[in-house]
Write a structure and sequence with these properties.
heterodimer; A: six-stranded mixed β-sheet; four-stranded antiparallel β-sheet; 9 helices; about 30% helix
């Protein structure tokens, strides 16, 4: 059953940011979360992670309300990779990855073999073996994202939530990072801006606009010129000759003929 | 989940005792680091004990380190030291409590600084940022100058109440603004200004010259009046505080990437933040009420400790405590001896050392990030 949102709303300072979102994340699948800036992707991820509590509705983890679970229990199941999470503290790669063991360790207990194995495996999976002693402040943007993913993997999660993990990465690192996420034996939810990357790496897409779900389905179902015009206000040509026949989106100059914004599409 | 089973494992019970005995099978690097950890601890405690003993011998009255150990042994019921009663009095009634209080204040203020820097994610945070010491000063001045409290609460009592009031004001201000780290710092700055202004107002409008001098001396920090009561109270508060903070050390580590990151690692962020703010406020209030407002220890020494042992709080906090203790023992020794028989307020010496160190931190902060 994995993660489910049931009519979840959340806002801050009287403004509704997430507005009645319902979605299901299928176990093992990679779910892409699309939508323009300010559409509520990051907030929805925080709600799914239990870092924020919904003002109405509920987030369920295997059918149990996140609000009734202890944070620690949630952190053993769900790991989060934030957008640009950085620190002033002079940490080494190993220190950061070890943070992922916090939900598994007791207050006074020493680091156990299970902890060390999880950290070693996480470093291996992300190609960071040998970089353990490097200082956080010497890492490039792509390396920092990989370290965060390694830290998240050290949590041994079944669900991995990533907020625009490809931001500020060059094309090579974008592809490499999403391929890595895709390979991982976890259920993932990825907020993305790049529609072509979403088409290539996600099994399923959910599109948000102004906090509401305006479309869900496979990339082929969701990525249509009409939806792109409606949600992003750009003209696009969609062909179906991407890798493995997935949609490929090409943008065109000029504004689209405006349709009533998000009028037709309603959540499932 | 594949388990590669690399390495023969760390003995039969990985979750067992915390002793360093299980280091046999782990990677060599890890074992070495753990060894250096306990070696550092041993060296640190040794240096602290020696520092205290040597510091006690410094000053008028010709004392040797062996006399100090002898007198302490005698009071603990370990045979006769064979020294005069006057010397015994100098060591046991005057210099030992004073030096111990210096060590405790150094340790306590440094721990508070380390915690607030991590919690508020601000390398320039220290207990004084929250306005606690300004509040303490106002409380003390109210008692001394205006005689409020009718002699029941002394200067220390007034300082403690002032500190708690100031901290409450800060928490209420911060809570109204959302309690994010930067709001807490801003609320602290506002409270510091408010209580400093109140203190100045009371002193200039009501105090005579003699009172002003006494209050100012106390405001800058003084360990001169230290007695065993102070040592016992401050020691107990700092020890309990340190144990509480060590218990939540992993949570402090988790704050490195911010509060949301900590929350996603399973840390109950609000509760931990409140707990640690209250603990640091109580430690600071207790120390300030005993020894006055000693600045810069909490600001500078945690950075020194991080440079030695790295950022992990399980090791960092005890190291910070040790370095703070050693530092303040020597600073107080300097403060009471350089212009002998005139004493310098200890806060003056910590500030003279602290400001250049502060500048260095500022310059280094410009580098990364």
């Amino acid at each position: 059953m994995s993660l489910q949102a049931r009519d979840v709303s959340w806002g801050v300072g009287g403004r509704t940011i997430v507005d009645g979102v319902t979605l299901d994340v299928r176990p093992g699948a990679t779910l892409g979360l699309l939508g323009p800036n300010g559409s509520g992707k990051s907030s929805l991820l925080r709600l799914l992670a239990g870092v924020r509590r919904p003002s109405s509705g509920s987030v369920l983890l295997d059918g149990r309300d996140l609000g009734t679970l202890r944070r620690r229990e949630v952190a053993r199941r769900v790991a989060v990779v934030e957008q640009h999470a950085t620190t002033e503290v002079d940490l080494r790669v190993l220190d950061v990855v070890r943070l992922g063991r916090i939900p598994h360790r007791t207050a006074w207990g020493p680091e156990g073999t299970g902890d060390r194995e999880a950290v070693t495996l996480a470093l291996e999976r992300t190609g960071l073996t040998g970089a353990e002693e490097r200082s956080w402040h010497t890492l490039s943007g792509g390396e920092r994202q990989r370290v965060h993913i390694a830290r998240a993997l050290a949590q041994e999660p079944q669900e991995l939530l990533l907020d625009e993990p490809t931001n500020h990465l060059d094309v090579h690192h974008q592809l490499e990072l999403l391929a890595l996420v895709r390979r991982l034996p976890v259920t993932s939810v990825v907020a993305l801006h790049d529609l072509n990357l979403a088409a290539m790496f996600c099994d399923h897409l959910v599109v948000l606009a102004a906090g509401r779900v305006v479309a869900t389905g496979t990339p082929t179902e969701v990525l249509t010129p009409e939806l792109i015009a409606d949600v992003y206000r750009v003209r696009a040509v969609v062909t179906h000759d991407g890798p493995g026949g997935v949609p490929a989106v090409r943008f065109e100059p000029g504004l689209p003929v405006t349709t009533p914004v998000t009028a037709q599409a309603r959540p499932v | 989940m594949p388990v590669p089973g690399s390495g023969p494992g760390d003995g039969p019970a990985p979750g067992g005792g915390a002793g360093p005995g299980g280091a046999g099978a782990g990677p060599a690097r890890r074992a070495r680091r753990r060894l250096t950890g306990s070696a550092l601890a041993a060296v640190g405690i040794g240096v602290l004990v020696l520092s205290i003993a040597i510091a006690i011998t410094i000053g008028p009255a010709d004392l040797a380190v062996s006399d100090v150990f002898g007198i302490v042994g005698q009071h603990l019921g370990l045979g006769d030291a064979g020294v005069t009663r006057i010397r015994d009095g100098i060591v046991w009634d005057l210099r030992l409590p004073r030096t111990l209080l210096a060590a405790i204040c150094g340790a306590g203020l440094a721990i508070c600084g380390a915690i607030m820097q991590s919690l508020l994610r601000n390398p320039l945070a220290d207990p004084f940022v929250l306005g606690i010491s300004s509040g303490a000063s106002t409380g003390a001045v109210l008692v001394v100058v205006l005689g409020i409290g009718g002699g029941i609460v002394g200067l220390s009592g007034g300082a403690f109440i002032g500190a708690v009031v100031a901290f409450t004001v800060v928490l209420l201000l911060a809570a109204g603004a959302g309690s994010t780290p930067d709001r807490v710092v801003l609320a602290g700055v506002a409270a510091t200004q408010l209580f400093s202004a109140l203190t100045s107002f009371i002193v200039t409008s009501s105090a005579d010259a003699e009172q002003t001098r006494g209050v100012l001396f106390w405001l800058l920090g003084s360990l001169g009046g230290a007695g065993w009561n102070d040592v016992a109270l401050c020691g107990a508060v700092c020890l309990v505080g340190l144990v509480v903070c060590l218990a939540v050390a992993p949570a402090l580590d988790a704050f490195a990437f911010g509060e949301d990151a900590a929350a996603s690692l399973g840390i109950p962020v609000r509760w931990i933040r409140l707990l640690l703010l209250v603990v640091t406020a109580l430690i600071t209030a207790t120390l300030v009420s005993a020894a006055g407002a000693i600045g810069f220890v909490g600001l500078v020494l945690p950075h020194a400790a991080r440079a030695v042992v790295g950022p992990g709080h399980r090791v960092l906090l005890p190291t910070t405590a040790l370095i703070g203790a050693i530092f303040l023992v020597w600073v107080d020794t300097v403060a009471r001896t350089v212009f002998d028989p005139q004493e310098l307020p200890v806060g003056v010496v910590t500030a003279l050392v602290g400001v250049p160190a502060f500048a260095v931190i500022l310059y280094r902060r410009k580098g990364p990030a």
